[in-house]
Amino acid sequence: MAPLPPARAAEECPGSGAGRAGGGEEAALSATALPARSAAARSARRRALLHAVLGAFGLAALGVLIRHVGAAEMLAAVTRAAPFLPILVALEAARVGCETLATGALCPRRSVPPVELLRIHVVSYPVMALMPAGRAAGEAVKAALLSPHVGAPRAAAIAAANQSLALLSAAPLSLLAALAIWRIGGGASALALGVLAHAALLVASGLGVAFAARQRAAFAWLARRFASAGHAAAAFQEAVREHAPVPARPFAACVAGRAIQAAQYAVLLAAVGAGTGPIRALAAYGVGAVGTAVGDLIPGQVGATDGAFTLAAPLLGLTAGSAIAISVLVHLLQAAFALAGIAAAFVWRRRPPAR
Fold first, then answer.
1. What distance in Å separates the CA atoms of residue 196 and residue 182, rounded to the nearest whole number?
2. Which of 113, 163, 197, 236 has its CA 20 to 30 A from that of 176?
3. Does residue 3 lie in a domain region?
4. DSSP state, 131?
5. Cβ pair 245, 211 in contact under 8 A
6. In which domain, by residue range, is 150 found?
7. Is residue 25 in some structural domain?
8. What is the distance between the alpha carbons of residues 33 and 197, in angstroms, rounded to a whole number?
9. Is the separation of the CB atoms in 106 and 158 below 8 Å?
10. How far apart (Å, rounded) are the C-alpha atoms in residues 321 and 324?
11. Could you give phi then psi for residue 136, rounded to 5 degrees?
12. Could you give the CA distance from residue 172 to residue 1 in angstroms, rounded to a whole number?
């Protein structure tokens, strides 16, 4: 029997130097991967601990506020709002529908069934409403659920566009809210200037996300150093450039969702027996937006929005109890939709992607 060629003998002999070298490479890779996984696990534990501490702090702050204003007054205001709950639920469903339309407009035509788009937004709602920095986390969940239908690069591009549009679409309402607070307060105030600064920050952040995703320099650097990541980055950039930086139809749908949110505050003001109207509703929207931004890292923004409404109660013509009742009703509404989303994740089956 003829001897094997040296290269082939090295491949077929398990005890050969090539085999030992291959095993050594695998061992080296495993040795470098283990510390990375351990560091990632430690980082995840630290984040979870931080979120738990912030959540406990928010709940404690809410408890202190309720005790300060009187639980009886706050509960009476919440009870008076009971007949308005169906309207609030319908408006929240319409707001989720607007976000669904925005995502559908970003997807290739007929790539995702409308029912599946709705399921994706219902399932991701608990993450957006309850998680710290929920918008970014929710968009990541949407991208994961969209990827079987449109591919991972395009799903990531849609998530980036949704994140940018969520920021930009809030800016017009925040600007109107600053003007409303200016008018109600009789001129410049710390709250009006804060809402105005928030609107400017929304524009800067939204445009920053939109244009950062389209820059070639960072992705070219990535492609030169990591070939597989470079290919994925190139596909992501190609998907990003399928749409304008601020696509008109998705932007209009997101602005409509923000307008519905302002309408919810008009209903909430009426529900607790306060004066209502477009200007006062916009002012309440601005207060809620600032509270949400300040408490972005607190789960559900519990305590942050409650404190914002308590401080702004005189401006909005509310008692302290009614102001906290508004924020508590918002928490209850979000919690109800979050529970529905969690239930949907178990019982609403995913439609398989089209071939």
1. 10
2. 163
3. no
4. S
5. yes
6. 50-215+244-347
7. no
8. 44
9. yes
10. 5
11. -65, -40
12. 83
Res 284: pLDDT: 93
Q: Tell me how far apart the alpha carbons of residues 260 and 147 are, in angstroms, rounded to a whole number.
A: 29
Rounded CA-CA distance 237/260 in Å is 33
113: its two tokens:
């069934």
Structure tokens at 139: 């968009």
Q: Taking a C-beta distance cutoff of 8 angstroms, is the pair 330, 89 a contact?
A: no
User: Per the structure block, which two tokens stand in for 67?
Assistant: 């005790």
Question: What letter represents residue 190's amino acid?
Answer: A
Task: Count how many domains the chain has.
Answer: 1
The answer for residues whose C-beta is within 8 angstroms of residue 181's C-beta and 6 or more apart is 189, 191, 192, 195, 283, 286, 287, 315
Task: Copy the structure tokens of residue 91.
Answer: 């408006």
Tokens encoding 290: 């600032």
Evaluate whether residue 238 is within a structural domain: no
Token pair belonging to 296: 């972005």
Q: Mind listing the pLDDT tens digit for each residue in 141-200?
A: 999 999 999 998 899 999 999 999 999 999 999 999 999 999 887 566 888 898 999 999
3-state secondary structure of 302: coil
